[in-house]
Design brief:
single chain, about 350 residues, alpha/beta, Aspartate Aminotransferase, domain 1, Aspartate Aminotransferase, domain 2, 7-stranded mixed β-sheet, 4-stranded antiparallel β-sheet, 12 helices, binds pyridoxal-5'-phosphate, LL-DAP_aminotransferase, transaminase activity, NHTrfase_class1_PyrdxlP-BS, EC 2.6.1.-, PyrdxlP-dep_Trfase
Length: about 350
């Protein structure tokens, strides 16, 4: 049996109950799940593709791959051949299985950020490999590792890795034959910083060798419920992933592929959603600061990484007593023990309730 960590959210259940007992109800800023409507452009495309009796293509339709390549070019200055795009069943699925799909296993260490989305760790374990949570690659020394994960903007900290930092990671990995997988699911949510893709020429020098960028439509287009993501990059690696995924039945349903293509072609709904998060962030951040919290990093992404200097679970309890549920920083690594992660994913009405309760 592979030893998996306890599912962390179960530990938050008593605080959820406490927050739910608030007279005006819970304001849940813990899980970063979208609460705004699925854009009309997605629903229309999904409905139009409802009559899909045949098996979908694991590689995705040409229409979808062209839309993904078009979006990367238009919004992020990245040029990829549509052949080097591969749809995934949301990005969590790929994060969890990438080490396995790449053939990592016993004796390998997969490098993950010190403060990170927990699924990088789980993915290493599912492959029988070991997660190695470290930010500075110097600490890895001469060891050969199969895979290095980066995540910018970061969940949970909202930190952005500048192009120069990413360039060094890519150079380091290429020297050692390691794959760099860059989780870019918050790439369009830059606030004070402008996030850059690992596939941008400023980072990779124009070659995608050894690099994969992982994207998600969950947050950009409120498609978390559809399970819609894709991976793009090194043609050889994408081909290898495609081969295994075909055998393993890891394919995105045809109606979801149609919805993905439609939202990737459309920026209007994404800008509108970005505006909603920007407004929520503008009221939540000063409200937390006035109430005694310091916000660290958080220059991009969907979260405020906040601390009042006490243990994260004391902060979780104090906020739950006000009916506000947040995630304790230690869910993301021991270095998060003095922080809480505050998600921007609540309705304007609930965000306003939080602001009132913090006064
Ligand atoms: C850093 C990061 N990667 C991946 C995911 C998974 O997203 P999805 O599976 O919805 O695409 C999340 C979800 O919150 C995340 O925060």
């Amino acid at each position: 049996m592979i030893a998996l960590p306890d599912f962390p959210w179960d530990r938050l259940a008593p605080y959820k109950e406490l927050a739910q007992a608030h007279a005006d109800g819970i304001a849940d800023l813990s899980v970063g799940t979208p609460v705004d409507p699925v854009p009309a452009v997605a629903r229309k495309a999904l409905a139009a593709a409802a009559d899909s009796p045949g098996y979908p293509q694991t590689h995705g339709t040409a229409r979808l791959r062209e839309a993904a390549a078009g979006w990367l070019r238009r919004r992020h200055g990245v040029t990829v051949d549509p052949a080097d795009v591969l749809p995934t069943i949301g990005s969590k699925e790929l994060v969890a299985w990438l080490p396995t799909l790449l053939g990592a296993g016993r004796g390998d260490r997969v490098v993950i950020p010190e403060l990170a989305y927990p699924t990088y760790d789980v993915g290493a374990r599912l492959a029988g490999a070991e997660p190695y949570a470290v930010d500075g690659l110097v600490a890895v020394g001469p060891e050969r590792v199969p895979l290095v994960w980066v995540n910018s903007p970061s969940n949970p900290t909202g930190r952005v890795l500048p192009a120069e930092h990413l360039r060094k990671v890519v150079a380091w990995a290429r020297e050692r034959g390691a794959v760099v997988a860059s989780d870019e699911c918050y790439l369009e949510l830059g606030w004070e910083d402008h996030p850059v893709s690992v596939l941008h020429p400023d980072v990779c020098g124009g070659s995608h060798e050894g690099i994969l960028a992982v994207h998600s439509l969950s947050k950009r287009s409120n498609l978390a419920g559809y399970r819609a993501g894709f991976v793009a990059g090194d043609p050889v690696l994408v081909k290898r992933l495609l081969e295994v995924r075909k055998h393993a039945g890891m394919m995105v349903s045809a109606p979801v592929q149609a919805a993905m293509a439609a939202v990737l072609d459309d920026d209007e709904h994404a800008d509108e959603q970005r505006g909603r998060y920007a407004r929520r962030r503008e009221v939540l951040r000063p409200a937390l600061e006035r109430a005694g919290w310091r916000i660290d990093h958080s220059t991009a992404g969907l979260y405020l990484w906040a601390t009042d200097g006490t243990d994260c679970w004391d902060q979780v309890r104090g906020l739950a007593e006000k009916g506000i549920l947040v995630a304790p920083g230690d869910f993301y690594g021991a270095a998060g023990r003095a922080h809480v992660r505050v998600a921007l994913t609540a309705t304007d009405e609930r965000i306003d309730a939080v602001v009132r309760r913090l006064q």
